[in-house]
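Quick one, T. Sequence first:
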Amino acid sequence: MIAFLLFIVLPLLLLVVAWRIRPLVPRDEHQTDPLGGSLAAGGMFGSHGLEADRVSVREETEQVRFRLDDLKERE
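Structure tokens:
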């Protein structure tokens, strides 16, 4: 009987409760943030009030080159 309650009734009860609970954070109104990352970051770090970029643009940075010629070999 305990196994039936633990493995059948309890999971079904938790699923029903999960579908009934309202989300704590309102849904994101913008279509550019499907996972809600900016909403979560705004809650943690404060919102800046700017709209999200519609298209991500890669940042233009120079390639980092390491010069290992000057290093001494290990003894």
